[in-house]
Structures are given as C-alpha cells and as structure tokens.
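Sequence in, structure out. Go.
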Amino acid sequence: MRYSLRYIQIHYNDFNMINSAFLSIYTIYCILFRPPLHFTYYILYFITSPDIQYYMDINLQINPSFEAVFLINGKLSESGKVVYGSNEVVYITVLPLDAYILPYTVKMVGERIKSNGDLASCYNLGESNYYLKLLPRYNYVYNVGAIKGKAGLGIVEKFFNYVLKRKLALARECLSEDLSNSIGDEDLSAFFDGFSDVIKSGDKDGEYYLIGKGSKGILFWFEVVDGAINNIVEKG
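Output:
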C-alpha cells in the first residue's frame, strides 16, 4: 500500500487495507489539524490513568506494638527498616519475642497492604517515608483484653484514645491543670476530629504523628511536664 497526504492507493477488494488507510488518514488529520486537543488528551491520560505506574523509593519503618524481629523477603532484620521500590512486592514476617503472641506475614505492594490488613496499617509521613503499624495476633486460648493492657500506653496515646471515645473526664486527667482549665468540653471533644490514630515519631521526644485522611500523618509536638500534657503544637 502507498499513500501520502494527496494520494492513497487502495485495493478496494481488501477490507483490511481499507481499514488501515482510514486509520492512517485519521492519524495524519489529528497531528496536522488538531494538535492541541490531540496532545491534551494524551497528557490527561498519563496524569489520570490508573494503569500508569510511577516509580519511587519507599522508606518503610516497621513498628509493632510488641517486641519482635522480622523476616523481610526471607532475610532477618532487627531494625525493622526497609527501602524498596513503589512497584515492588515485599513480604514482612513479624516474629514476636513473647510466646503468647503469634507470628504472621504482611504482603505489601508499594505502600498498599495486601494481606492481614486487620492487623497492619500503613501511614504516609511525607517525603517517601512510611510507617507500618503492626498489632499483635493472639491465640484464642488467651485472654486478649488482659494481654493488651500489659503493653501499656503513653500519656499522649491515652489522651488521644480518651478524646476519640468522648471520655472527657479521663482525657482531662492527662492534661496539666492550666491546659485543662483553658479548654472547654466542646473544643476538647472536637480536637482530634478527622484523625484516626496517633504514632510516636522516632526523631525527637514529644513528637507524634496524627493520622488523618488518606492515612497521611501530620506532625505535632506534645509538651509533657510531670507526667501531664502541658501544650500541643502542630508542626506540619
């Protein structure tokens, strides 16, 4: 088949060649006469299409609420830190050091959890840093409620949980007298609206991430004086 902008030689008895010629003419038309729409379409496609994969490194910090070591793709790790590509598959097996907690494996594709999602949560802390929170898995013969209390929570985690459950009297017990007197019940009960979890930052004392929409963490500083929260500052 020979064709140009002015002349197309077509064998009319060959439907496949007719179809090919039509597609070729349409392609030339789009390029010559409709460049803005043509290129805009492809730009929008690459931006919005879920089929387009963008590669980046993920810095994952694994944090169980109990003492443990890990097998990361079969290799033993005590630190719980791993760097991998956003399109890679990682298998993380948590090996608890206490016999009453059972081991289990979390499969991750990038930052997405693909197995045991009821025991694992992945939070975005910004700048390709992610935090994998792991809950204990118990054998049914144990009293789970009693064992959970064994680990204990810090004053910030207690305050967060009391506010979310609207147990304001208990929440105020976590605050200094000055801070408690300066905030009303309505403001206190709404303080953590939009947040679902709190995790401690490993960088500095008093820094915690509050987990909001899209599992994204926002950094806060909690000033603790004599075992009570005296100030709360959003650091962004």
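Check: The chain has three domains: 1-52, 57-138, 153-234. The chain is about 30% helix and 35% strand.
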